[in-house]
Amino acid sequence: PKLEAFDDELERWIDVTWDVDPERPERYPARIHVVVINAPGSLGSVATAIGEADANIDNLRMHRVAADYTDTVIDLEVWDLKHLNQVMSVLRRLDVVNRVTRHFGDDDRSPLSTPNMPHGAVTSGASVGRPNQAALDAGRDAQQSVA
Prior knowledge:
Largest sheet: 4 strands, antiparallel
Strand content: 25-35%
Low-confidence stretches: 111-133
Strand order of the largest sheet: 2-3-1-4
Number of strands: 4
Oligomer: single chain
Structural class: alpha+beta
Number of helices: 3
């Protein structure tokens, strides 16, 4: 509704599309945030799933949240928004993945951290069948006491 006020001002609109030329497909950058269980093979499972989904990992940054979890920010190359959503869906089905979200902006910090909590601290609940917030907090507190 608020954008309707600009219907007559075409010069203020920006054409946004990922599928510029169907004859020459291009990969586009996208950033996702993945909370992964810290266990042998977890990163390999995530990387394999991304590759098998025909996406490319351009960059990867990891930050340990707790003894059992790692925040991972992954820069991907995908074909379009539908492809990005498919990649995220594939990752959500992995047993080693707790959460997958799209990460906007250039900030490498976890989108789930807050200014009052340490970098990367998870602030929302975990999925069913996986360690809960109390377990994440306990691991974070133990990590802080060591530091």
